[in-house]
Amino acid sequence: MEYRIEKNDTDIRVLFSGGITFSENVSFRQVLKELSENDVSTCVFDLEGVDMVDSAGLGMFLIAKEQADTAGWKLSVTGAQGHVASMLKLTKLSDLLSS
Amino acid sequence: MNSDDTMTVPGRSDALPDGVKDAHILIVDDMALMRKMIGMSLERSGFENLTYAEDGDDALNKISENIPDLVILDINMPNVSGYDVCKKLRADPKTASLPILVQSASETPEERVEVFAVGATDFVSKPINQPELLARVCMHLENRFLIRNLSDFQTRMQDELKMAREMQHSLLPGDGVVKTVEVRSQSVIEAFYKASFELGGDLWGTWPIADEKVGVFVLDVSGHGVGAALNTFSLHATMARFEDKKHDPAAFLSAVNQTMANTMKTGKFATMFYAVLDCQTHDLVYAGAGAPQPFIFGANGLRKLDSSGLPVGIVRSATYENLEDRFEPGESLFCYSDVLIEADRPDGSMLGEEGLEQKMIELLDTGDRNSIVKRFLDEFYETQKEHLPDDLTAIALHRAAEAGLP
Questions:
Q1: With an 8 Å Cβ cutoff, is A93 touching chain B?
Q2: Confidence class for position B406, pLDDT limits 50, 70, 90
Q3: Residue B214 is part of a domain; what is its CATH number?
Q4: DSSP class of B198
Q5: How many domains, chain B?
Q6: Shared-domain flag, residues B291 and B374
Q7: Which residues of B touch A86 (CB under 8 A)?
Q8: How do residues A34-59 score in pLDDT, each as one tens digit?
Q9: Is the ipTM of this complex over 0.90?
Q10: Closest chain B residue to A19 measured between Cα atoms?
C-alpha cells in the first residue's frame, strides 16, 4: 500500500494505491496519525488505485470512521473498482463509512 | 577479601547481575599457574561457580558430566588440543551453542582463523589482559542467558499455541453431528479448514433443527492470529446462546450481531452466512453478513446466493434479511472463505468469484460430485505458496440425487 495526501485548507484527500491488507496495518495507522495532526473538516479516501482489500483492510476503514466521528470530521470513500468495489458492496460498508 | 579488591568489568558501573554471577565457568589450561590466574581474576569480579580442567581430555569429561555456561579454553595443550575440544563440542547438539572463549599465545592470523573455523565463539591473546577477559566473559554469558530466555519463551509459546489450536479445532463440528446432518439432509458433507498461522479466524458449523431441518454456517473474523481466534471462541459461545433462533437465519444473525457489537473492538468484525434447509420441502432460507457469495450448483447450472450484509460486530442496529431459494436433491451448496478467490496465483492474478465458479462447473463434469471440493483444493494448493495469506474454509453439502434421477 502507498498513499499520498492532498490538502486543500481543511479538505483532505488521501489517494491510496496497491493493496490494503492485514500486513499494511502499520502504514494505515500512519495515515490516521497524519490525519489526527491536521485540522480536518472533510476527508476523502480515494481508492481508485487500490486493487485489493481484505477484511483487515475494511476494518481499518472502520477505525478511520470512528476517528472521524470522534474528531468531528466527515469521511467518504470514493473510486473503488473491481474487487474493492465488490467487497464494499458485499459487506454494505460503503454506506456506513460515508454516513 | 575486602571490597577494594573487587575488580569491576570495563564498561560497567554495576555489580554483575545474579544470573551472570552464578554462571558456571570451566577454565581449561595445562598450566596450573594460568588456571589460578584466570580463576582469581574471575573470582575478584564476583564469579563464584568456577571449575577447572588440566587438559582437553579432562575438559571433555567434565563437560559431559555437567555442561557449563561458558568455557575458557587454552588452545595448545598436550594430548587433546583446544582445537579438538572445540570440534567435539560443536559436533554434539548439546554443546553446539556453548560459548567457548579461546585463549592462546599464538598470534598468527592463520591461527586465529583456525580457532574460529573449529567453532570458537571468541578469542583472547596471552598474556591475558584481565579487564578484556572479563568484558568478553560477561558479554558471552549475557548473550547466552538472553538467548536461553528467548528460546524458553518461544518453546512455551509454541506449546500454548499448540494447545490453543487443538481447542480451536474442537469448535468445529464433530463427526457425530456431521453424520446426523448428512443422514437427515441425505447429503455428503465435504469440509476443509486450515488456519494461516497457528490459530485462525475462520469457523464453520452445522446442526439439526427440530425434526426436518438442518442449519449450516460459515464465518470469518477479520484479521488473523490470536486475536481473531479468540473472537471465534466468543462467536461460538454467543451462537450457542441463541438456540431458539436457529430456525430463522436473519433473527439468528441479528441476535449474534447485537451481542458481538458490544464486545468486538472497532475495526474487528466477522463476515457470516447462515442457511437453514428444510429437508422435506427442499426450501432453503438464508441470510448473509458479508461472507463471500456461496452458490448452489448441479446439472442445471449454478446460482449464487446473495450473502451481502453488514458483517456482525460493527453496529448494534444492523438488520439482516431472510432470502429464499431451493436446494434440490442432486445439487450441491458450496460455502468458502475469501482466500480461495483472493490468493495470488503464480501469474499474480486472483482466481476471483467467476474463476471459482467456472472451475467448479468444470470439475463437475470431470469427476465425482461428492469429491469436488477435494479435487478443487488439490489443484488450488499446487499453485499456492506453502503458507496462504489467510485462513481457508471450504464446505460443501452434496445432496444425493433422488432415485432414478442423475
A1: yes
A2: very low
A3: 3.60.40.10
A4: S
A5: 2
A6: yes
A7: 353
A8: 999 988 999 999 999 999 898 889 99
A9: no
A10: B342
